[in-house]
Design goal:
Layout lengths: L31 E12 L6 E12 L3 E5 L6 H9 L6 E9 L2 E2 L5 H4 L7 E4 L3 H4 L6 H12 L4 H14 L5 H5 L8 H13 L5 E5 L7 H18 L2 E6 L2 H5 L4 E6 L2 E7 H6 L4 H8 L15 E2 L33 E3 L2 E6 L14 H8 L13 E2 L7 H8 L1
Parallel strand pairs: 3-8, 3-9, 6-7, 7-8
Antiparallel strand pairs: 1-2, 1-4, 4-5, 9-10, 10-13, 11-14, 12-13
Length: 398
């Protein structure tokens, strides 16, 4: 089964600007829609508290895309679910999450149901497990419409048809009557996007939306999300492990490690002037088009820390090629680059700015003689940033 090409979105019989369930102040494109301040998320476990998100703060304006990047276990998905309030009973959140000026942290589920789908939505990693296998596609799309908008059965079905057309599904009338298992992975992900966008949310979370899809379909899904975000002037948070995915699709990038943001900047600025060793390591692990065949890829030595037993000092220090004594004792704050207040990084020293990605040996010598060997701590090696977006990264760096 082949996947359809993206098509231009038709006008929907749903007012994207309307607040259907709750009365919120109008947030125009370019104005701050989401404010996250000092957010912490901790899970209780038999091994003790698991600190999955630690002190995350950022703002997101309507019409802009924030890319959140990091290895598995860095806290990316937990951060998204913490903002939406999709947390299990053993989770505790502190800090502040404001949407259009309204505080949402620890709001009751009854209140959050007015936001889910209507004001904010999520596209999950695996559509096969996110979709209900025993319900037809039509039921799964119209369920959200009936929950938030006063539509007749016929109006809801017409809206579902237009949504399928807008996400590039061929023969939408026939597809409405199908079950998820009768479609390809790419089509199932398009169905998930249609459900997420059904009520015209102002904020969309895309949590690894191209997982398990082949490279061609990945590009189609990412192009579709980017087009929908632009046409509807939504704010979007794009979660991925691949810096190449966000290189040409995000306005701003936040790199996460051990539950914290370790570097944050506008996309072009981050790729041009990398300041944190972990960001550099992620970039180095991506295959480049100019590499000779069978070239060994750089891998990040060691493994991410145990969130239930975090090391003292900088959490990246055991894997850092440039770590010095203070790095293993004192945790650095998230501080602005002296040359660019919009570029934040969490490092005692910061990689010297050489105008792009310099050779590793040059960077290590610039930091000082106290640099440890590459990935000295930990067992094995962890690669990150597989190659679906390597060309995009190479283009940005150039």
């Amino acid at each position: 089964m082949t996947d359809a090409q993206p098509t231009s979105a038709p006008d929907l019989p749903v007012d994207v600007e309307a607040d259907h369930d709750i009365d919120l102040p109008t947030v125009a494109p370019g104005e701050v829609l989401l404010e996250v301040e000092d957010l912490h998320t901790t899970f209780s476990s038999p091994r003790g508290p698991v600190r999955a998100v630690r002190g995350v703060s950022f703002e997101l304006r309507r019409g802009r895309t924030l890319g959140i990047v990091g290895e598995s276990g860095s806290g990316k998905s937990v951060l998204s679910r913490s903002i939406m309030g999709l947390m299990p009973s053993n989770a505790t959140r502190t800090g502040s999450v404001r949407f259009a000026g309204n505080e949402l942290l620890n709001a009751p589920a009854k209140t959050m149901r007015g936001y889910w789908g209507d004001q904010m939505s999520m596209v999950f990693q695996d559509p096969m497990t996110a979709l209900n296998p025993v319900l037809r596609v039509e039921k799964q799309i119209t369920e959200t419409l009936h929950e938030h908008i006063d539509l007749s059965k016929g109006q809801a079905r017409d809206t579902a048809l237009k949504l399928l057309e807008s996400v590039g599904i061929p023969e939408p009338k026939r597809r409405l009557r199908m079950y998820p298992h009768e479609m390809s992975g790419g089509m199932r992900q398009r169905i998930m996007i249609a459900i997420a966008l059904a009520c015209g949310p102002k904020l969309l979370f895309a949590d690894e939306p191209t997982t398990a899809l082949d490279v061609t379909v990945q590009a189609q899904i990412l192009d579709l999300l980017q087009g929908m975000q632009r046409d509807r002037q939504m704010a979007m948070i794009l979660v991925t492990h691949d810096l190449g995915v966000v290189a040409g699709r995000a306005h701003d990038i936040a790199v996460m490690y051990a539950g914290q943001i370790v570097e944050q900047a506008p996309a072009a600025e981050l790729f041009a002037h990398v300041r944190h060793p972990y960001t550099e390591a992620l970039l180095r692990s991506i295959p480049k088009l100019e590499m000779a065949k069978h070239t060994k890829l750089d891998a990040i030595g060691g493994r991410p820390p145990d969130l239930a037993n975090l090391p003292q000092g900088c959490k990246y220090a055991p894997r850092c090629a440039y770590a010095q004594d203070i790095c293993h004792v004192e945790e650095p704050p998230l501080k602005p680059d002296p040359d660019n207040a919009d570029h934040l990084f969490r490092c005692h020293f910061g990689i010297p700015d050489t105008g792009g990605l310099a050779p590793r040996t040059d960077r290590a010598e610039a930091v000082g003689d106290g640099a440890a060997g590459d990935g000295a701590a930990g067992n094995g090696a962890v690669g990150a940033g597989v190659g679906s977006g390597s060309g995009a990264v190479a283009g940005v760096q150039a």
